[in-house]
Write a structure and sequence with these properties.
32% of the residues lie in helices and 26% in strands. The N and C termini lie close together (12 Å). The longest helix is centred in the C-terminal third of the chain and has 20 residues.
Length: 331
C-alpha cells in the first residue's frame, strides 16, 4: 500500500510502498480517506518522543484519520464492512498517512454523519485532547472561568466550543488577525498576545489549558486563583504521567526533575499542576460525535493537502500559520 513514512528520525520522510497492516482479532481494517496533520507528527519525526514512545522504524506517521471499514477481526462486534469511521489510534499503532490502517475496536467511533471525511479526520486527536483536559481532568463546571491558550489552533478551536458548552466563562489568547474570529467561536475575552500580556489582564481563573512553552506555563500561574488547576499538554511531564505510561525508573526520575520547578511554584500558590498526554478512547469519541451532530462543536479545517504533499502539510502546521486543523486527502 502507499504510505508516508520515515526510516530514521530527523529525516523529512517520503511516500512509498509499505506492507498492509496485520488485522488482529480485535482490530478493524479501515481504508483511509483522509488523515489529520498534527504537531505531534513533527515531534515524533524529529525523535522528540523516542524514549517515551519507542517506535519501530520504518514508521508510518499520522495520528488520526477518517475512512471506511474494509473488514473486521473475529472478536469485533460494533463495526462492519462499509461503516464510515474515525479515530485517534493508540500511540503504538499510529499510521494515518496511508491507504489502510488497522485499529483496535476500542479506539474507533462512527464518523459524524454531518461531516465529510476531511473535516472528520481533523477531529479525533484535538477533540479528545480538549475532552480529556476539560471534562476528565479539570471537571469543568458551569460558571467556572477557563483560560485556553492558542485559541486559533487545533486544540484551541475545539476547546473553546467545548468549554462554552460546559457553561464556562472562556478567555483565550491569539494573534491580532484572529481576535474577532475566536470571539465568534464563543470566547468571552480574547487577549491579543501581540499587544497585551495575558498575565496582566486576567485574574482569579479556575482552569488554564496550556499548549505553549514553559514561559507561558509559568506566567499562567498568575491568573489562577488559589485552588485553581493548571493543565498542560506541552512542556513538563509529571511523575504521574510517567507512572501512567509505565516508563522505566530512570525516565520517571528524569520527569520528576523536569517538572519539579513548575510543580513547586504551583504548590506555593495552592495550585494543582497536571500534564495530559491524550490517549485513544472510542467511547469519548462517541460523545464528541454526538456534540458534533447536534451542532455544538464545529471542526475548523484550514486546508487539505494531497497525500503526496505530506511534507508540505507538516511544514505548514509547523509554521504556526494554520487556523484550526490541516488534513491530508488519501486517494
Amino acid at each position: 500500500m502507499k504510505a508516508f513514512f520515515i526510516e530514521r528520525y530527523k529525516e523529512a520522510g517520503r511516500i512509498g510502498e509499505q506492507p498492509e497492516p496485520t488485522v488482529g482479532d480485535n482490530d478493524v481494517l479501515v481504508q483511509v480517506h483522509a488523515a489529520s496533520v498534527n504537531l505531534l507528527d513533527s515531534k515524533i519525526r524529529s525523535g522528540e518522543f523516542k524514549l517515551i514512545l519507542p517506535y519501530r522504524l520504518p514508521l508510518i506517521l499520522g495520528n488520526d484519520f477518517a475512512g471506511k471499514v474494509v473488514r473486521v477481526g473475529s472478536n469485533v462486534r460494533h463495526f462492519k464492512a462499509g461503516d464510515e469511521v474515525y479515530a485517534r489510534p493508540p500511540d503504538d499503532r499510529i499510521g494515518g498517512f496511508a491507504e489502510l490502517i488497522a485499529v483496535n475496536e476500542a479506539a474507533l467511533a462512527l464518523k459524524p454523519g454531518n461531516l465529510d471525511m476531511e473535516h472528520a479526520a481533523a477531529v479525533p486527536l484535538v477533540a479528545l485532547t480538549a475532552w480529556q483536559v476539560l471534562v476528565e481532568t479539570a471537571k469543568l463546571k458551569p460558571g467556572q472561568k477557563v483560560l485556553i491558550h492558542a485559541g486559533s489552533g487545533g486544540v484551541g478551536t475545539i476547546a473553546i466550543q467545548l468549554a462554552k458548552h460546559l457553561g464556562a466563562f472562556v478567555a483565550t489568547t491569539t494573534g491580532t488577525s484572529n481576535v474577532q474570529w475566536v470571539k465568534e467561536l464563543g470566547a468571552d475575552v480574547v487577549i491579543d498576545y501581540r499587544t497585551q500580556q495575558f498575565e496582566n489582564e486576567l485574574r482569579d481563573f479556575d482552569v488554564v489549558l496550556n499548549s505553549l512553552g514553559n514561559d507561558v506555563l509559568e506566567k499562567s500561574l498568575k491568573v489562577l486563583r488559589p485552588g485553581g488547576h493548571l493543565i498542560s499538554i506541552s512542556g513538563s511531564p509529571t511523575p504521574a504521567f510517567a507512572e501512567q505510561q509505565g516508563l522505566s525508573w530512570g525516565l520517571k526520575l528524569v520527569m520528576r526533575l523536569l517538572s519539579r520547578g513548575i510543580r513547586k511554584k504551583a504548590a506555593k500558590r495552592g495550585i494543582r499542576y497536571d500534564f495530559v498526554f491524550m490517549r485513544a478512547d472510542g467511547h469519548q469519541l462517541k460523545e464528541i460525535t454526538r456534540l458534533i451532530e447536534a451542532g455544538v462543536i464545529k471542526p475548523i479545517l484550514d486546508r487539505a493537502f494531497p497525500l503526496e504533499a505530506v511534507t508540505e502539510a507538516l511544514a505548514y502546521v509547523e509554521s504556526g500559520r494554520s487556523k484550526g486543523k490541516v488534513s491530508v486527502s488519501v486517494p
